[in-house]
Amino acid sequence: MTSKATPAVLALLAAVSVVTAYAQFAPRHIYDQNADARAEIRDALTTAVREHKRIILDFGGNWCGDCQVLDIYLRRAPNEAILNANYVLVDIDIGRYDKNLDLARKYDIPLKLGVPALAVLDSRGRLLYSQKNGEFEKMQRMSPESVTEFLEKWKARDHESRGGL
Predict the structure, then answer these.
(1) Does the bond joining 116 to the residue before it have cis omega, within 30 degrees of 0?
(2) What is the pLDDT of residues 34-46, one digit of tens each?
(3) Strand ranges (E), the chain
(4) CA distance 124 to 164
């Protein structure tokens, strides 16, 4: 290799490294901007009844760093297993605070406190929990364990899974 080729090769390797790093840490497209959130909630209710699960409504936007962190924490062990075994997750796009605002109001989500904002429904669609104080709005300062605690606290209990109360 000549001395002229070395800088070109180094530049190429640097470019490949940057592209690889970006692909690895690029924000995930969590919230479908074209989704019909009401239809997704209806489908989640059907699944929740059939599988004896609860529903988590996750209000947020793809631009939201804290929403990205919550998504990472939800997909990390042990949270992913708890989520998959006990919940149907519905990611609801709020746009730039200009979409699905009626759904946020319906489920008592005060979006003015920030996102991500979560609500938990039972398999019949009854609201069990909604964030009132922006609990997950500062996800970047929280630990994955705080998500584990939330998932454990709100999962259906045995008598609910068997069709009881």
Answers:
(1) yes
(2) 999 999 999 999 9
(3) 54-60, 87-93, 117-121, 127-130
(4) 12
Cis peptide leading into residue 78 (ω within 30°): yes
For residue 58, pLDDT beyond 70: yes
User: What end-to-end distance do the CA atoms of the chain give, in Å?
Assistant: 75
Spans of all domains in the chain: 37-161
List the single range of 18-22, 70-74, 127-131 with lowest mean pLDDT: 18-22
- pTM score: 0.81
Burial of 37 (0-12, 13-18, 19+ CB in 10 A): buried
With beta carbons less than 8 A apart as the criterion, state whether 111 and 97 touch.
Answer: yes
What percentage of the chain's residues is helix, strand, coil (to nearest 5)? 50, 15, 35
CATH 3.40.30.10 corresponds to the domain 37-161: yes
Round to whole Å and give the CA distance between 147 and 66.
13
* Per-residue 3-state assignment (H helix, E strand, C coil) for 37-67: HHHHHHHHHHHHHHHCCEEEEEEECCCCHHH
How many CB atoms neighbour CB 87 within 10 A?
22
Q: Residue 98: left (phi > 0), alpha (psi -120 to 50), or beta?
A: alpha
